Amino acid sequence: MTEQGRVLVVDDDETVRDVVRRYLEVAGFEVDVAGDGTEGLRLFSTTGPDLVVLDVMMPGLNGLEVCRRLRQVSQVPVVMLTALGEEENRIAGLQLGADDYVTKPFSPKELALRVASVLRRARMPRPEPAARVITDGDLALQMSARQAALGGVELPLTSREFDLLAFFLTHPGVAFSRADLLEKVWGWDFGDQSTVTVHVRRLREKIEKNPAKPVRVATVWGVGYRYDPVRR
């Protein structure tokens, strides 16, 4: 295992696989490659990567289905590769739990930097408040264990969803723009703000009684989002 970590690249284009592999290896990663979704799932189970780079459009088992199956068994960070103009696939990937995406054609150097950023964020120790458990009504977050529960039932949150919810809970009543959240939760000073929109939607589906009429994560029109505690 290298210090940077192990990355699994799943793409049916041999040229893309080779270029991405070489750039990631230069960046210090150990890299495994797969030419289709089935092989990707097999390698995932045998190599235990720290992050998966996953092409959306593949014959047979496509990237969205692979991501869905990965999320059934693991919260490993996933970076999706999507073609320019495939907004629906990008959103679908984020809804399935992908952590980030890069649009083709892309700079392999940028992809390597994005992979490093996602991994660094996933490994970063999170500062905790004085209380190790944050509560709001029937919602509870155990910060050290990185677990969340609603009404005593554990919530299946991805790492990014947990970070977003923890940020909201520790900043109640404050309106944040999507750009603010992208910087403060994702740690990015650039990126597609629709990433935030999709993660907020996923979070509402898990913590709101009626996601269409949220009472905790409120939309502030013209600004972004605000967390309104159930118990002040």
Automatic annotation (TrEMBL):
Domain named Response regulatory: residues: 6-119
Domain OmpR/PhoB-type residues, every copy: 131-229
GO molecular function: phosphorelay response regulator activity; transcription cis-regulatory region binding
GO biological process: regulation of DNA-templated transcription
The organism's place on the tree of life at top rank: Bacteria
Keyword DNA-binding: yes
Alphabetically ordered keywords of this record: DNA-binding, Phosphoprotein, Transcription, Transcription regulation, Two-component regulatory system
UniProt KW Endoplasmic reticulum keyword: no
DNA-binding region: 131-229
Matches recorded under Pfam families: Response_reg, Trans_reg_C
Entry-annotated residues carrying 4-aspartylphosphate: D55
GO CC annotations, alphabetized: cytosol; protein-DNA complex
Protein name as it appears in the record: Two-component system response regulator
